[in-house]
Design a protein that fits this description.
- It is built from 16 helices and no strands.
- Helix 4 packs antiparallel against helix 12 and helix 4 crosses helix 14.
- It is globular and about 90 Å long.
Length: 376
């Protein structure tokens, strides 16, 4: 049992499950205070999500909708994870995501590009936006958190300004791709057949999963990944060993930004959502990616499952009975769970410390038993 608990993957799984259970419990307590009559039903609705429908075709269709939004969340989570492995906290992933939205929609609606150039353009835009904090850190020693947050807002208002030229005249939303730029919509590759004809289920989902696998291989199996992690663990030691620490910092945030920008394209090039040019807050996708990263135990494969779970409860919040609770209550429940995801590393550390204390006591017991045997 002790050997099993000492494995990092097992510790991550236990920590993640504990965080989820604590979040659900706290959400349930809040619902009890507001209106105890519907508390259990509200929590059940959040967890059921698409299973709230009784018909199979509606369940499959709404499962597809959840997966559509899981793909960009996974990409944002991978963006945060990649930077974190190099010792950087990419809180600017939200801004890089927004810039990716701007790039792919502007290229599709204004220039008439097809989906692949739009996707690559979104990645490039996110990468360049992400490299700015990297340059500021490498050459001016500016904290990436401060520069990242500032760039989030610059990206938001710049996106609103640029996309105003491709929005509907009677609303703040950008044009639908299906009517104005159908060539820019991601291909379904036949995946819609598994989700009751939901044409918004595209290759975005397998592309996001494939990206997670590639990130895992790069970080664990390549010299480049080793250098990035070495730079993150100790920048001065990496420099002493001949590693280009400044280049690694910039390149890490460049790649991280590209991942977040790709996430934006994987959502908006499905025509699932339109961008509101009056948006006054940064989309939560980039920030939710932070929660999915830690809930997944900072592991690319764990992040795939964590991203789906975070999106599952977020989508499930829409099924909470609005006659008993206000519309924001679903966001509150989701936020509690997401907030507690930040304690995954703390729980893992606690498990490891407990195992060490147990091993130390066992060694002391064996030593005392051996000494007693010698005296006899």
């Amino acid at each position: 049992m002790r050997k099993l608990l000492s494995r990092s993957a097992v510790q991550s799984l236990i920590a993640s499950l504990l965080c989820v259970l604590m979040g659900l419990f706290l959400g349930y307590v809040v619902l009890l205070f507001i209106n105890p009559a519907g508390a259990w039903g509200a929590i059940s609705a959040v967890m059921k999500n698409f299973l709230n429908y009784s018909r199979t075709n509606l369940q499959l269709k709404n499962l597809g909708n959840t997966l559509v939004k899981t793909a960009p969340l996974l990409m944002c989570a991978l963006s945060v994870l990649f930077a974190y492995k190099a010792g950087l906290f990419n809180i600017g992933a939200a801004g890089q995501y927004v810039v990716g939205v701007c790039a792919c929609l502007y290229a599709a609606l204004n220039w008439g590009w097809s989906w692949l150039p739009c996707l690559l353009f979104a990645m490039l835009a996110g990468a360049l936006w992400g490299s700015v904090p990297g340059l500021l850190l490498a050459y001016c020693n500016v904290n990436v958190v401060i520069s990242g947050i500032m760039l989030n807002w610059i990206g938001l208002y710049g996106t609103n300004l640029l996309l105003a030229s491709v929005k509907e005249t009677t609303s703040p939303y950008t044009f639908h791709l299906s009517t104005n730029a159908p060539q820019a919509i991601l291909p379904t590759a036949g995946l819609e057949k598994f989700f009751a004809g939901n044409t918004r289920v595209t290759i975005a989902i397998p592309l996001a999963i494939l990206t997670a696998v590639i990130i895992a291989l790069v970080l664990d199996k390549t010299r480049f990944g080793y250098e990035l992690k070495a730079t993150g663990n100790n920048k001065n030691a990496a420099k002493y060993c001949g590693m280009a620490e400044k280049r690694n910092i910039i390149l890490t945030l460049f790649i991280s930004g590209a991942l977040a920008g790709a996430g934006a394209a994987l959502l908006y090039l499905t025509d699932f959502e339109q961008w509101a040019c009056t948006a006054s807050s940064v989309p939560g996708m980039g920030f939710n990616g932070i929660a999915a990263t830690f809930l997944g135990g900072l592991n690319p494969y764990g992040t795939i499952l964590a991203s789906y779970f975070v999106q599952h409860i977020t989508s499930g919040g829409a099924f909470v009975d609005k006659t008993l609770y206000c519309s924001q209550i679903s966001d509150l429940i989701s936020s509690l769970i997401i907030y507690l995801c930040g304690f995954v590393l703390f729980i893992k550390t606690s498990i490891t410390a407990g195992l060490r204390r147990s091993e130390e006591k066992e060694r002391q017991r064996l030593a005392a038993a051996g000494k007693g045997g010698e005296e006899k």
